[in-house]
């Protein structure tokens, strides 16, 4: 049996899909499983014990042409509710083509009924979740598991899969033990947070008596430089190789982050997490993308950047970290 799985969007979303990928492997142990990924997120599964091959969608390659490479597979599953992944799966022509979309998106539903053989509906529509505070939105992990169940998976796995090696751990062995790790990102500097407030957060976290480590990617180089120059962290690490970054999180006593894939990296290595979600989409994000199966605190950014709002937000973060330590 040949199976194609497709998820070409963000790193965090692919991490949250690893239980579904593991469930496919458990349910079809003798199948050859290929995962279609992007050049950006493929690093999540390059060590996966649950896939036999990873195929990267090129920047200049259309999803239809890419999916047609896999004609002859027996089962194709889109693990993301995105047009790109739906088109990849449809182009395989597999006897079973499974995916999901939002229940409220009627046009997408109609199109998918023509492209796929099985369509799972999700209520995690962003606008609807914010309009109706009583709506319960399933976690992304559970939504994707529902898709592979519809495709025939019966032996379900629920742990996130993100292997770390001794070599990865050795690369961060010089970090202080059991630190508070703060993942920097652009969102610390906008929409209810500022760079100055982020620096002050480090100073206030210092009162908890733990070493402080800052990590950042390409989007937060400037903020990382400011944190380093201000001397508010014991170590500042930027643009680490992916699995070394994961190993740095694994050493943490607690991870503090805004809404990025860092939330799910921390969950994968089972570290308590404080995550600060955007004010505008809090109801949806705090349910669908919350830390998974780890002790956590889910907080909401303030609606403005007044001194009082920023001070209250920092106090909330520090209190949440203290409770998790």
Q: Helix and strand string, N-terminal first?
A: EHHEEHEHEHEHHHEHEHEHEHEHEH
Per the principal axes of the C-alpha atoms, what is the gross shape? globular
- Report the total helices: 14
Which stretches of 5+ consecutive residues score pLDDT under 50?
A: none
Distance between the termini: 47 Å
Can you tell me the number of structural domains? 2
Determine the structural class based on helices, strands and strand pairing. alpha/beta
User: CATH homologous superfamily name of the largest domain?
Assistant: Glycogen Phosphorylase B
Helix proportion range: 25-40%
* Gross CATH architecture of the largest domain: 3-Layer(aba) Sandwich
From the alpha carbons, calculate the radius of gyration and give it in angstroms: 20 Å
How much beta, percentage-wise? 15-25%
Q: Tell me, rounded to a whole number, the average pLDDT.
A: 96
CATH topology-level fold name of the largest domain: Rossmann fold
User: Could you give the order of strands across the largest sheet?
Assistant: 3-2-1-4-5-6
What is the CATH top level name of the largest domain? Alpha Beta
| Major beta-sheet overview | 6 strands, parallel
Total DSSP E strands = 12
